[in-house]
């Protein structure tokens, strides 16, 4: 499960890491939630890659109601190739969602402590993701959406949660966009070193924003 993340690096610099020129007009965001627009990279028509904004929560092209996207924020790596909601996008419409870190909640009894997880290097990265184009048959309006791929937690993440998003650096991003069917077979091998620290519970409320949401309130692990 990945239900909240942050992207505060300049979009132009982050995109350049993944071979894309240009930027989008987006402010630093520290508490990105489902149904919001997020920054993504995908293969452009013709050649190269492009930087786009997609709504988080994939709406399959065949859906009658776009509200189905509210339940499609993640796609499991183990089943994404077969699930009707994702299999067409898995084969033909992959993308990268740019981020600086993501949140996960560690449960201890009835207490859930939020943690912020980022690359040990502190650099921005990308989530492996899919995108889809949905068209309203009555109005002709188009909606482009995305979902993040998740997998079993690696040894670093297991103390925090049993699932994690597929995190990519630039060297794995090209393979993902090219349509590799083997990339998800050994996620441990492609996951870069991570670091994590507990943060304030204000992040639990998606209406809260600000760079202080990623400030540590306890000791760091990893890095």
Major beta sheet, specifics?
Answer: 6 strands, antiparallel
Give the strand tally.
Answer: 14
The total of helices stands at 4
User: What order do the SSEs take from the amino end to the carboxyl end, as H and E?
Assistant: EHEEEEHEEEEEEEHHEE
CATH topology, anyone?
Answer: hypothetical protein yedk fold
Helix content: 10-25%
Oligomer category: single chain
Mean pLDDT: 94
Which stretches are low in confidence, meaning pLDDT under 50 for 5 or more residues running? Answer: none
Distance between the termini: 22 Å
Determine the CATH superfamily: SOS response associated peptidase-like
The strands making up the biggest β-sheet line up spatially as 2-1-7-8-13-14
Principal-axes geometry comes out as globular
Provide the β-strand percentage band.
35-45%
CATH A-level architecture:
Alpha-Beta Complex
CATH class descriptor: Alpha Beta
Work out the count of structural domains.
1
Rg, rounded, reads 17 Å
Structural class: mainly beta
């Amino acid at each position: 499960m990945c239900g909240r993340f942050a992207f505060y690096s300049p979009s132009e610099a982050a995109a350049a890491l993944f071979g894309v020129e240009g930027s989008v007009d987006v402010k630093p965001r520290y508490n990105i939630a489902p149904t919001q627009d997020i920054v993504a990279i995908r293969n452009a028509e013709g050649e190269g890659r492009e930087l786009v904004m997609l709504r988080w929560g994939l709406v399959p092209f065949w859906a009658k109601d776009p509200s189905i996207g509210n339940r499609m924020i993640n796609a499991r790596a183990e089943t994404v190739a077969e699930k009707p909601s994702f299999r067409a996008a898995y084969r033909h419409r992959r993308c990268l969602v740019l981020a600086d870190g993501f949140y996960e909640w560690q449960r201890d009894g009835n207490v859930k402590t939020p943690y912020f997880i980022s690359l040990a290097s502190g650099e921005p990265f990308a989530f492996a993701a899919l995108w889809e184009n949905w068209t309203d048959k009555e109005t002709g309006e188009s909606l482009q959406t995305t979902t993040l791929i998740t997998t079993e937690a690696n040894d670093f993440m297991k103390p925090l949660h049993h699932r994690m998003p597929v995190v990519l650096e630039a060297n794995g991003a090209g393979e993902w966009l090219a349509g590799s069917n083997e990339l998800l077979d050994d996620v441990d091998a492609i996951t870069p070193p991570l670091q994590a620290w507990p943060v304030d519970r204000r992040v639990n409320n998606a209406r809260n924003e600000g760079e202080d949401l990623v400030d540590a309130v306890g000791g760091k692990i990893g890095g």
